[in-house]
Amino acid sequence: MTNISSKTSLTIHAPAALVWKALTDPEIVKQYFFGTNQQSDWQQGSTITWTGEWEGKTYQDHGKILEITPGSYVKYSYWSSMGGTEDKLENYQNVSYILNEKDGVTTLEIGQENIKSEAAKEHSEQNWQGIFGKMKEMVERGQVK
């Protein structure tokens, strides 16, 4: 594992319960995450998968829920079939979502560990901002209920 990690955050003008729903409901995720099919029962130790097609290539990414406090925190392992690495433990990253709500406004912090390079770190941070920026718009527009 590498020591490169990242943290990025977004402020979402909505309660944490709606943000959590947007992170975990597969029908909502599909709308903002490039049509990705996300599947998990969101229990500690359970698998989580993402499948879909990107630029004509199918992908099957997966991991395990490592820690979870429903509604406010989840940490999962993650391996991407598009990442160009073998599916083995040292190539997995850990991703976390932390939700903090104050006065109906939620801060979503996204953390990522075991990033392979500084360039990959920058790319990940931009991707997280883009993906969850779309989710933020959906939540703030009232498209998540």
From TrEMBL:
Superkingdom, according to UniProt?
A: Bacteria
Q: Which Gene3D superfamilies match?
A: 3.30.530.20
The protein's matches in Pfam families, at most eight in alphabetical order, are given as: AHSA1 (PF08327)
Q: Which CDD domains match?
A: SRPBCC_CalC_Aha1-like
Cite the Activator of Hsp90 ATPase homologue 1/2-like C-terminal domain residue spans from the record.
Answer: 14-140
UniProt record similarity statement: Belongs to the AHA1 family.
What name has this protein been given in UniProt? SRPBCC family protein
Originating species: Mucilaginibacter panaciglaebae
Upper classification of the organism? Bacteria, Pseudomonadati, Bacteroidota, Sphingobacteriia, Sphingobacteriales
